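#struct-help
A.M.: can someone run this one for me? Single chain, 133 residues.
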Amino acid sequence: KFLRRWLLSPPPPNIAKDMSRLIQTLKDSSMIVLPPLHVHTSHGTILNLIRSRQASASLFREIDLMIGSAEDVLVIGEGRQQQKVDEQNEVKLHDTLIQPLMNIIGYESGMKSQSESLLNRCEVVHEVISNIV
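D.P.: on it. Structure tokens below:
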């Protein structure tokens, strides 16, 4: 659905360039290993279940897994990743992977955000879900 939407209604040139940089970085880098993406339920279904207060504990566990994957991606280039990377590569990874990703997320969601802010929000949501479920 995502690609079809982008083909039918292309994003602005700067966002398309960010997507190109992101894909090129992922294609060319042998040291970036993306975490598994734990998505079994569509975001629309998740939102509807939460809004109607019908979300189950298993759905919140699924959300927690998705947030964990998002955190794993956001820490690439932040110096928190366990792989040994020198500072120059950390800056390069942030500029070629995280920043384009954040620009695309901002465009798709309509809300600009910094990776540190999004990571902090992910950690708070993870903590809240872990305390309840």
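A.M.: thanks! DSSP finds six helices and no strands in the chain.
D.P.: also worth noting: The two ends are 31 Å apart (CA to CA).
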